[in-house]
Amino acid sequence: MNIPGSGLAKGLAVTLKTMTKPVGTQQYPDVAPELPPRSRGVIALLEANCTVCMLCARECPDWCIYIDSHKETVETPGAARTRQRNVLDRFDIDFSLCMYCGICVEVCPFDALYWSPEFEYAETDIRDLLHDKDRLGEWMPTVPAPPAHDPMGEKSKEETSAEKKAL
Ligand code: SF4
Ligand code: SF4
Q1: Which of 66, 97, 133, 160 is deepest in the core (most CB within 10 A)?
Q2: What's this protein's family per the entry (predicted)?
Q3: Atom number, ligand 1, closest to the C-alpha of residue 99
Q4: Residues 115-142: what's their mean pLDDT?
């Protein structure tokens, strides 16, 4: 049975304990937390890899990726025909809607999206949680390096086929 006021007393006890913690026991924001390397903090965009295939925007369950592009004609010297390529005009992610499911990062066939563990991008205006391609690109240097190659792991297809050719 709950004694009236016991919840409040417990809460005050926790507050008192935190307030009287010995100096030196520092917590966030004074000390940055040690996050696992695969933490889902924010999504970074490597713009050069994006082919505007739209797969991420189509698969996003929240419809919070907004992409615009235009076509550009590329003339290659010596080629019989010109070819067309997509140029990215807009790539925004609305982090006020994003649920950090990671589907966009998983489905991108061109390795243009990455998870960064950075999480300090809270805003006082919800509209500022819409990150454009430049802002998403600024997160790229914070993306952790991929894990080192396992020397005992399975060889890549490229290595195996190169070995077959050499025989
Ligand atoms: S993490 Fe999920 S919700 Fe967020 S932008 Fe990617 S697909 Fe959409
Ligand atoms: S899936 Fe990748 S390549 Fe395709 S539009 Fe999205 S970020 Fe660009």
Answers
A1: 133
A2: Belongs to the complex I 23 kDa subunit family.
A3: 3
A4: 97
